[in-house]
Design goal:
Helix 3 runs antiparallel to helix 5. The protein is 51% helix and 16% strand. It has two domains: 3-83; 108-239 and 255-263, Protein of unknown function DUF881 (Alpha-Beta Plaits, 2-Layer Sandwich), CATH 3.30.70. The chain has helices at residues 3-13, 17-107, 141-154, 200-205, 208-221; strands at residues 112-114, 116-122, 158-161, 164-165, 172-175, 178-181, 184-186, 190-195, 224-228, 233-235, 262-263.
């Protein structure tokens, strides 16, 4: 509105020019305030209507989170308990495996190796006198059994004859001109290998029964007895079948595992 028109209206109705200008300004300001209030009304209404559900949802989520936290703590407690039980079970399994390993070694079912002793028995090469029994100049099953027995008495932990593992069920018999060990026919010379303590040969050679054997067989009939102490002797596993139907341990404790030897993989 131009100044000329405002002046004309003021003269016509008798208002001052400044009154009309102020009125127009107030009118415009009223429109602006009304528009502003109208634009804020839906937002205020929306906030007041949605606040309660949002608060309820937040409370429910917090409750679920608390429940999950408690469940997590319970699971951690259960895991700790299971781990403790597993540790005890693992120790028990280890003990059982060790006992089973010792039993298998004692039964000859596992090959072992380590420092040991080898005794060789060979037929006599001395001339046989007329009228003498030639079998006395040959190594017999009784000779092999005597050496095996002396090794056991001296502390041997595993014994084999020409690669045949000697177990509690092993039979050493004379069959024709050979010696039967387990189910194998062996020919001379016979090598009796054993694993045991470092002083195995010294202990065996000092035994009166072994000295008597040397005098009776080596000095009298010329049976050749030689020995060697290799740094590593292999005692193979028993290759036959175990068919014991009734057995009872001689003592409740199992024999100790061979300290100077180890299991052959």
């Amino acid at each position: 509105m131009s100044r000329l028109r405002v002046t004309s209206i003021a003269r016509t109705f008798g208002f001052a020019t400044w009154q009309i200008t102020l009125g127009a300004a107030l009118l415009v300001l009223g429109f602006v305030i009304a528009a502003q209030l109208q634009s804020q009304t839906p937002r205020t209404s929306y906030t007041s209507q949605e606040r309660a559900p949002l608060v309820q949802t937040a409370l429910e989520l917090q409750s679920q989170q608390d429940a999950l936290k408690q469940q997590l703590l319970d699971l951690r407690t259960r895991i700790s308990g299971i781990e403790a039980q597993s540790a005890g079970s693992a120790a028990t399994v280890t003990q059982l495996n060790d006992a089973l390993q010792r039993a298998r070694i004692g039964a000859g079912l596992i090959a072992i190796h380590g420092p040991g002793l080898v005794i060789q028995l060979a037929d006599s090469d001395a001339p046989i006198p007329p009228g003498a029994n030639s079998s006395d100049y040959r190594v017999s099953g009784s000779d092999v059994r005597t050496i095996v027995r002396e090794l056991w008495l001296a502390g041997a932990e595993a014994v084999a004859v020409n690669g045949e593992r000697v177990t509690v069920s092993t039979a050493i018999l004379d069959i024709g001109g050979s010696v039967l060990v387990n189910s194998a026919y062996l020919a001379p010379p016979y090598q009796v290998a054993a694993i045991g303590p470092p002083d195995l040969y010294r202990t065996m050679s000092a035994a009166p029964s072994f000295v008597a054997f040397i005098r009776a067989r080596a000095e009298t009939f010329g049976i050749r007895v030689s020995f060697a102490e290799p740094s590593d002797v292999t005692i193979p596993a028993f290759a036959g079948t175990v068919n014991l139907r009734y057995a009872q341990p001689a003592s409740p404790s199992l024999p100790p595992s061979p300290s100077p030897s180890s299991v052959v993989p």
